[in-house]
Specification:
This protein is α/β, with parallel strands linked by helices. The protein is 38% helix and 17% strand. It folds into 2 domains: 193 residues, Vaccinia Virus protein VP39 (Rossmann fold), CATH 3.40.50; 57 residues.
Length: 274
């Protein structure tokens, strides 16, 4: 018999260890199973998810369901998505009687089709980029509160020209306004990962439209030469004459903002994308 998590998020480390022991299992590195257990981190994620996101909500990579449990206890409808059938079974049991349901499946694959308005997640690190990209394509999703690797958080929040700035920054900024909500020290997780994390709030500012794949393909090509001259890389990627790319002259690829890439799309940057 698996007991629900503690009423307050204390003792979660011991609770999860007991859940895994009862299942005869260990955390899976392949599935990026690292659980947020410190009460400070749990409160930070749960409180922001409840206050900032419009229900219904989805908890991606719900694991044994403790985050979904605490959010659902606040009266917010939640669907938890979990790829591990053993942990999905636990999540289903502990959320019985709450406004919650559990779906067995790969969150990174399902995120594009989920009929929810908000997503929260202690994001499986290996699936972070796929989850963000899929969420951008799902216009039902209006906001997200995601715990990600600190390096990824820094990339998402980076300024043009900085070392961390890249194609993920541009993809996120095209569709979402973002802000950092706090740091998640690695000691707050079980098992303890090798890196710290960060909590990010995403608020949608733009709808995904058919043909927007071009923006991703174009930024992917441009950032193969992130330190090169932007007009030179744009000409190489698109086949456009470098002389027609005067807007980009004098910039490095790492200095391009969303408007610059939008302009490149508008002048035919995708028609002959290499």
């Amino acid at each position: 018999m698996i007991e629900p998590p503690p009423e307050e998020p204390h003792g979660l480390r011991a609770w999860i260890r007991e859940v895994l022991r009862s299942l005869g299992r260990r955390p899976s590195q392949r599935l990026s199973q690292v659980f947020l257990v410190d009460p400070r981190g749990v409160r930070l994620l749960v409180e922001n998810s409840v206050s900032l996101l419009e229900p219904p909500l989805a908890d991606l990579g719900t694991g044994p369901g403790h985050l979904a449990y605490y959010v659902a206890r606040r009266g917010k409808p939640v669907v938890g998505v979990e790829i591990d059938p053993f942990l999905a079974g636990v999540a289903g049991r502990i959320t019985t009687g709450l406004p919650a349901g559990i779906v067995l499946g790969d969150a990174a694959r399902l995120v594009e089709s989920l009929g929810v308005h908000g997503i929260f997640s202690n994001t499986p690190y290996k699936a972070t980029s796929r989850i963000i990209s899929g969420a951008a394509r799902n216009n039902c999703i209006r906001g997200m509160v995601l715990g990600v690797q600190l390096e990824v958080a820094e990339r998402i929040l980076a300024k043009p020209g900085s070392r961390e700035y890249g194609r993920l920054t541009l993809l996120v900024r095209r569709y979402f306004a973002v802000r950092g909500l706090g740091r998640l020290p690695k000691s707050w997780f079980y098992p303890e990962p090798e890196v710290h994390g960060g909590l990010i709030h995403f608020q949608r500012i733009r709808e995904w439209s058919p043909g927007d794949e071009c923006f991703e393909r174009l930024t992917a090509c441009l950032f193969t030469g992130r330190n090169r001259l932007a007009d030179k890389m744009a000409a190489k990627c698109t086949g456009l004459d470098r002389g027609s790319l005067s807007r980009l002259r004098g910039k490095r690829v790492r200095e391009l903002d969303v408007d610059d890439v939008e302009w490149l799309v508008e002048v035919g940057g995708c028609s002959r994308l290499q």
